[in-house]
Design goal:
Length: about 80
């Protein structure tokens, strides 16, 4: 069994995740730490700099070549990452 908190393997699945995130931040901005574009993008960049620890905790290697799944991890983490 795969240990993937946001299982995204295809472009279509990533698109659906992005649309879901857009709806969530619009309808429930209080659930997001980074609920404006500027802070979200800064959090995304910060999380990417530190993402090795995330994958280490999942017992996975940190990716050198990002997949759709990695991009989904980045989007999800940026909602709350400081």
């Amino acid at each position: 069994m795969e240990n993937d908190p946001y299982p995204v393997k295809t472009r279509s699945e990533l698109i659906q995740l992005i649309l879901s995130l857009a709806s969530e931040v619009k309808n429930s901005p209080d659930k997001w730490e980074n609920n404006d574009l500027s802070s979200y993008l800064k959090a995304m960049a910060s999380w990417m700099e530190d993402m090795d620890g995330f994958y280490e905790n999942l017992n996975k290697p940190s990716p050198d070549n990002a997949s759709w799944s990695v991009f989904a991890d980045i989007l999800m983490a940026a909602r709350i990452y400081e």
